[in-house]
Every structure is written in structure tokens, then in C-alpha cells.
Amino acid sequence: MEDKPRGLLISPIKDGTVIDHIRAGAALTVLRVLGITGQTDEELSIATNVTSMTGGQEGRKDIVKVSNRELSKEEVDRIALISPHATINIIRDYIVVEKKGVEIPTHLSGIVRCTNAGCITNANEPIHSSFEVTEAGLHCLYCDTVITTDIESHII
Description:
This protein is mainly β. The chain contains 2 helices and 9 strands. It has helices spanning 27-33, 73-82; strands spanning 16-23, 44-54, 57-67, 87-92, 95-101, 107-109, 130-134, 137-140, 146-147. Strand 4 and strand 5 form a beta hairpin. The model has no long low-confidence stretch (mean pLDDT 89).
């Protein structure tokens, strides 16, 4: 049996961000929450459902490379909701200058839409949603609704 060559067929980027260890199948959701939909001037590389070796276990992951863009804290927080084991790699002049894991924050403001149609954050008021992250889910600080499932579909 012939050994398969290891490695991905994605070219390196000079400057930008590589989002690695995205949950398999979630790369397109990551692009959506970053506001990268349809036509864009940003150079993208997307690898979906690729083999990953994490902790000695073989699994699957997605990878997104975005040239000439470094993510804001709010964008990283959105990614953490989709894929809490993702890593963010900042690339400058083809070198990884910073590598960090994402962390789900304890408080989210203006990132998730409340599922309660009667919540004041869903009215035509200039109020951003505000959630506390708990073990039970996302707790709306305005109406006490708790979002426990399908959180990524409510990311603004």
C-alpha cells in the first residue's frame, strides 16, 4: 500500500489570518459571521472536512485563510460560539507572529439575537442584545430567555 503524502494543497498567505481547527462543516458559517458572503475583495482559502490529528486522535476539521485581514475581538468571539476549539493564527510576511485559541466570553453584547420575539432587543429600539454565558446556555439580560440550542443560527 502506498503512503499518501501529508499536507494541504493551499498556498501560504503573506499577511492575514488563518482560522484552524474549525469544527468540520462549519467553515461557511464562520465566513458568514465574519461578513464574508458573496463577492469579496478578500483573498480566501477554504478547506473543509480535512484530516486532523489532535491529541493523537484522527478527526476532521475545516480551515479558513483570509489574506490582509486580522480579526477583531468581536469576530473571534463569534467564531468561539461556532467552534470553541478553533485557533487563530496571525500571519505577517509569511510567518505566524501570533497563535491563540478562541475563548467563549462570559458576556456577549450585540453578537447574538434573542429568540424571544417580545424582547426589547428585537423591537425597533437602539438597544443591543446582551447575554450572560452560563452552563445552561445564553441568558438574555433583558428578558431572561435562555438559548440552549442552535446558537450559531442566532449570531448576528
